Amino acid sequence: xxxxxxxxxxxxxxGHLAVLRTAVGGFAARDSxxxxxxxxxxxxxxxxxxQLLRHTRGDRVGMEMETTEAGVExxxxxxxxxGDSVIDESSFSWTILRALADDLRVDAGDASATIVLAxxxxxxSGPGDELWP
Amino acid sequence: xxxxxxxxRAHTKALFTELRATGDTAKREELAKLHLPLVExxxxxxxxxxEPLDDLIQVGSVGLLKAIDRFDLGREVxxxxxxxxxxxxxxxxxFRDKGWAVRVPRRLQELSLRLNKLVAQLTQDLGRSPTVPExxxxxxxxxxxxxxxxxxxxxxxxxxxxxxxxxxDDAPMRMxxxxxxxxxLDNLEYFASLAPLIERLPExxxxxxxxRFFKGMTQSRIAEQVGISQMHVSRLLTRILExxxxxxxxxxxx
Lengths: 133, 254
Hints:
The structure holds 2 protein chains of 2 kinds. Chain A is an alpha+beta fold. Chain A has helices at 17-29, 35-55, 92-100; strands at residues 5-11, 60-67, 71-79, 103-108, 112-120.
């Protein structure tokens, strides 16, 4: 199957968080994710973006959303101080993101950081077992 | 029979000429009456914002009268072309003044309520949270409409935090069903700065926070456990995170 890639770039301001949240919701919903998962992704993107905004040295936050074999991967990037990993792994924020995303990592570059979130597709071809195992 | 555009244009011009020459208010009224269909047409574009159409026509008419008073016959432009932005401007100002620029259209509010019930139903039937395509099919609307309604559900709740969030607010907290689980939020003690904030949350919100982020329960499962809808769990979680973020920065109220 062909994988979709959508890129969104917004000003680094809290007022634009909603744009990112809406974009990821629309993207995931088109890929047969359940409402639970769509909501998880929206919350995760918001949390990740809030953390980036606190650390950014640039004036933009970029978000790439890509469908993968396993599901969807979302990459949020902004300019930060060299080596800044944005989210401390002992923070509450990290705990939240760990709960919301199936995969989570931060790629700290020379002058930018990328928070990478992934959500795996579940089998929606029939009844699920997530509710009553 | 409807007045043809050509007739209307000629008539308009004649009326303006007379109005400017004599200042006869009857001519002004006649001009307003002649262009009422334009007001109605423009007002209808705002009808999904929850205001009665009659009120909107009233507001648009004010714009029309302003346009009549300001129109310069010497202009090389049709009166209707000149009046349109004035009428639309008046309508927009009306909504802005009411602080309803972000008001969720009634149509979306209704769809949102309907979806809420369908989500519960489908979750029961499927044994998992439904997908957007499944929800759209069950509701008989497009996937885009479902997304729009879900998004507006969020917007609605965050702009009116004090408003009742829905019928399920009255649902009992089924704490007994959570049973033996450790609800003391021991894990949270690790985040010392958060503890005083979390204590300020109502018990139900503390439970939801704990179940989602420390027990890894899905929203649907939490909804089942706590006895509220999945959409309500979603709204509460969003609101709780917002509260905690603000709280870490300074003053926050829940």
